[in-house]
Amino acid sequence: MLRTALKPTWIAGLILALVVSGVFVLLGKWQMDNAASAPPPLTQTETPVPLTEHFVPGKAMYGTEADQVVTLAGQFLPDTDVFIHPRLHGDEEGYWVVTAFRVQGAPQDEVIPVVRGWTESTGQTDPAPEGDIQMTGRLLPAEGPGPEGIEQTPDGTVLANLASAELINLWDVRSYAGYVAPFEMTASGAGGAAEGAAGGAADGEEVGATVAGSSLEPVIVGPQPQETTYNWMNIFYAIEWVVFAGFAIYLWWRFLRDDHLRAQDEAELDRRWAEQWKADELQRRRTQAREAKQRAVEEYERFHGVPASASVSASASQTSAPDQRSQQTQQAQRIQQTQQSQEPQ
Q1: Angle CA(8)–CA(12)–CA(13) in degrees, nearest 5?
Q2: Are residues 179 and 205 in the same domain?
Q3: CB 64 within 8 A of CB 41
Q4: Which of 148, 158, 159, 291 is most buried, taking the most CB atoms under 10 A from its CB?
Q5: Residue that is last in its domain, among 208, 240, 262
Q6: Are 322 and 200 members of one domain?
Q7: How many structural domains compose the chain?
Q8: Cα dist. 152→113, 163, 170, 171, 227 in Å?
Q9: Residue 141: how many CA atoms within 13 Å on its side-chain side?
Q10: Separation CA 85–CA 159 (nearest Å)
Q11: What's the pLDDT at 129?
């Protein structure tokens, strides 16, 4: 098989198979690299960045964008409080109070839901701070709508999930596909200074659930566990590409083997044909020689009028008679020579 593999055609085929296999292996490596999804490092997610630079409205939130500490400024929209139930605070079950917050610098004045705090009942809550607000919090992905739907109570609207799609329908405004759980909230700008002069929050003064005497408990969301997740679909694709790479080499070997076996079969057929031709040719020549001899015998008998065997016997007898006469002559000469030698001198 080595002699067959060293043919230029099969060397070129091997090079092509290796190139194809290499491409398949690279594709498998690409799939394997995409199979692992590691969360951003804490050094990245815990460093505050502006919301308008980190995430844009109108698109889904990727895992690399979620769990990021962001800063944002703007105002709470009045009469947009909703309650999310059930939500745990320690071992107690209660409600999140969520309010629409118009983000300063958003492309089309979009809002983002802000979790202002946790309360045990819908009747125990504080109104949203007024004026310009500066906050720092964790950006989290929105939840999906729940089958429970919307519940209207005397104290406000209650939802089972913090779903941006449901809140957009309730508020009738454009919104980010996510929400913010703030760590700190302070009054800022001219509005805060004017309210401070009127007895409200002064510029830079802390507001919200973290203020002493608030009816709400702050909702602090820590960083997500640093666990790497794997997409099994990508892993299966990677395995398939490796199998394809091996199959490309196998195809080259199989075609080479078929060519080698075909050449062996043709060589065996040629050998058998040559042996059969030699045997047939030898038999043909023997037959021709026998027939030529027979024709010669028949011509001889027809020419001499006697069988060839009788002619051979006569020829043998004619040959023996002169030999006998020659022997008798030689014997007489020897007797005469003996008598002459015995006469007296």
Answers
A1: 115
A2: yes
A3: no
A4: 159
A5: 262
A6: no
A7: 3
A8: 19, 16, 12, 14, 39
A9: 12
A10: 6
A11: 92
Over range 61-79, report the average pLDDT. 91
The first and second tokens of residue 253, run together, are 């070997």
d(CA 267, CA 259): 12
Residue whose pair of structure tokens reads 């195809």 in the numeric block = 251
Is 242 within 8 Å of 25 (Cβ atoms)? yes
Q: What is the pLDDT of residues 91-150, one digit of tens each?
A: 899 999 999 999 999 999 999 999 999 999 988 899 999 999 999 999 999 998 878 778
Q: Same domain for 165 and 69?
A: yes
- Together in a domain, 86 and 63: yes
b/e per residue, 251-270, with b = 16+ CB within 10 A? ebeeebeebbeeeeeeeeee
- Residue with structure tokens 């006998």? 324
Q: pLDDT tens-digit profile of 215-257?
A: 899 998 888 776 777 788 889 999 999 999 999 999 999 998 8
Cis ω on the peptide bond leading into residue 225 (within 30° of 0)? no
Rounded Cα distance, 164 and 170, in Å: 10
Straight-line distance from the first to the last Cα atom of the chain, in angstroms, rounded to the nearest whole number: 103
- Whether this prediction's pTM lies above 0.70 is answered by no
The answer to whether 21 touches 246, Cβ cutoff 8 Å, is yes
Domain region containing 15: 2-36+231-262
Amino acid at 324: Q
Q: C-alpha distances in angstroms, 160 versus 83, 86, 319? A: 8, 7, 140
What is the CB-side half-sphere exposure of residue 32 using CA atoms within 13 A?
11
With H, G, I as helix, E, B as strand and everything else as coil, classify residue 3.
Answer: helix
What DSSP assignment string belongs to 45-111?
A: HTS-EEHHHH--TTSPPPTTTTTEEEEEEEEEPTT--EEEEEEEETTEEEEEEEEEEEETT-TT--E
Residue 22 resides in a domain: yes
Q: How far apart are CA 209 and CA 78, in angstroms?
A: 17
Q: Closest Cα to residue 244, out of 28, 14, 12, 15?
A: 28
